[in-house]
Design a protein that fits this description.
Helices cover 47% and strands 12% of the residues. The relative contact order is 0.10. The protein is an alpha/beta fold and 481 residues long.
Length: 481
């Protein structure tokens, strides 16, 4: 079978759409940290559309840890297939990723790209934990990578460290900063990233920190498109449909949305021209998405796993669970939100539930269950705290939290690895648990997850204990099934 690469583009089958531009003629104008599946399904697809009109915005991807993406894509000239799996199925070859650097191997090359005058945009998908923030969302100076970057600012490990050093060099060269666009599911992502960058710079050079504070544009964004990890079924499907060998195809649903603060986009790529929403009210979009899509996603992941389901689709076939999630969205979460202009919240909820029921997408609950300690505060606890403050019923919010505790205990008892930056602490707690209400108290000692104000609330504790008991019945159901 022919390998996907630049020379294969001239003879693509009718089943697959190729780039509407010559990838070899594209210049690099964007540096992206974290070229994982979500980025390749989402931002790179927007940039692919952009390049058809303006060849200045090719992407240099930077992997901070692993060489996997570079090694897979090097022999295919950075090209890969995007399979859009929905009511209609389509295949598209994306040419936007023009090179991939592996930071620990190519550090100076990364700084060379970050200081090119033509590179005017830096984007990131490094996951929640990749920003190295503490529970209050400020830079965590006790994080080992940040401690390392403070000691070795010119040879950083963290994303924030690379940004600070890149900006330091730009300042030294008399250049303006790049625009920094974070694309992870963090509330106020731009504000928090900029504050983290300024905080790290301040420890090094007060003038650099002032320059960054005054000149760096770092907009808040909302990103959305359901992107399951690549599996063998996708590889087979893509090679059968396209007749090409692709080392790392990507899959996603048809729905895709990207919202960026309008002021940050002046003079940059024509994002609006390729379907990006530019607005002054990103927080409303982002809160709605984090709480109404990601919150229910994590709820399905933990409750669904306890009930023995494997994918979001499977969990949504359980009428009781699907009904629970729908009520949580419509009756508990939506009333706390301000709808962004043009969005009808009940309609938004129903559209999300329909996306969860997409039979063409096999999204593993285990993938969504990663990093619960990082995700739950943003996705569930933020809504829960507001509901509690307003005297609303919080009992439904407690169920995904208790399910997470039981999920962690189950994994520990089965000796399975927990993917979470707090994995060590979580399994230490889990090992002491005995399925009594006292277990909840043990988890509540995790200050990184549960704010002191919540831990002090008797209503919260009682809600969690009741939910924890309820979860024990799910385990039993799964065992009988
Ligand atoms: C998911 C998200 O893995 C997860 O935690 O909730 O990746 C989700 O699929 C995306 O945010 C959808 O835009």
């Amino acid at each position: 079978m022919t390998q996907l690469n630049l020379s294969a583009l001239s003879s693509l089958s009718a089943a697959v759409t190729g780039p509407a531009y010559d990838p070899a003629a594209v210049e690099v104008g964007i540096v992206h940290f974290g070229p994982g599946a979500f980025f390749r399904a989402h931002q790179a697809a927007y940039v692919d559309a952009l390049l058809a009109k303006d060849a200045r915005w090719g992407i240099c991807g930077v992997s901070l840890h692993s060489s996997g993406v570079r090694d897979a894509l090097i022999s295919q000239d950075g090209l890969y297939t995007l399979a859009v799996l929905d009511e209609e199925i389509s295949y598209r070859v994306i040419g936007a990723l023009r090179e991939v650097l592996v930071a620990p191997e190519d550090r100076e090359a990364v700084f060379e790209r970050l200081t090119r005058p033509d590179v005017r945009v830096v984007t990131s998908t490094v996951t929640e934990k990749g920003y190295c923030l503490a529970a209050d969302f400020t830079l965590d100076f006790s994080h080992p990578d940040i401690a390392h970057d403070l000691a070795h600012p010119q040879a950083p490990k963290s994303f924030v460290g690379y940004v600070v050093e890149g900006l330091r060099r730009r300042k030294q060269n008399g250049q303006t900063p790049f625009t920094l666009i974070p694309c992870d599911n963090l509330p106020d992502n731009g504000k928090r990233l900029k504050a983290a960058v300024v905080a790290l710079a301040a420890k090094q050079d007060a003038m650099l920190a002032d320059w960054i504070a005054a000149h760096l544009t770092c907009p808040c964004t909302m990103v959305d498109s359901i992107t399951p990890a690549t599996d063998d079924a996708l590889r087979t499907r893509v090679s059968e449909a396209t007749g090409l060998d692709d080392n790392w195809p990507i899959q996603r649903e048809a729905f895709t949305q990207w919202v960026i603060e309008a002021h940050a986009c002046e003079g940059g790529p024509d994002w609006a021209g390729v379907g990006v929403t530019l607005t002054d009210n990103v927080p409303a979009f982002e809160r709605a998405k984090l709480r109404l899509l990601n919150g229910p996603h994590s709820s399905l992941a933990y409750i669904g796993s306890l009930k023995g389901y494997e994918t979001v689709y499977d969990a949504m076939q359980d009428a009781e669970l699907a009904g629970f999630v729908r009520t949580l969205m419509l009756e508990d979460i939506a009333p706390l939100l301000e709808a962004p202009a043009g969005m009808d919240l009940p309609g938004y909820c129903e559209a999300i539930l329909k996306r969860f029921r997409n039979p063409a997408i096999r999204h593993l609950l285990s993938q969504i269950a990663w990093d619960g300690s990082q995700k739950l505060p943003i996705r569930i606890l933020a809504s829960l705290s507001e509901a509690l403050a307003q005297g609303r019923d919080i009992s439904r919010f407690c169920l995904p939290l208790a399910a997470w505790m039981r999920f962690v205990i189950g994994k520990t008892r089965r000796n399975e690895a927990i993917t979470d930056p707090l994995a060590g602490k979580l399994s230490d707690i889990a090992r002491t648990c005995d399925d009594s209400a006292g277990d909840v108290t043990k988890f509540l000692t995790l200050g990184e997850v549960f704010p002191a104000s919540l831990v002090a609330s008797a209503t919260f504790r009682a809600g969690l204990e009741a939910a924890y008991d309820q979860c024990l019945t799910f385990n039993a159901e799964a065992a009988t099934a």
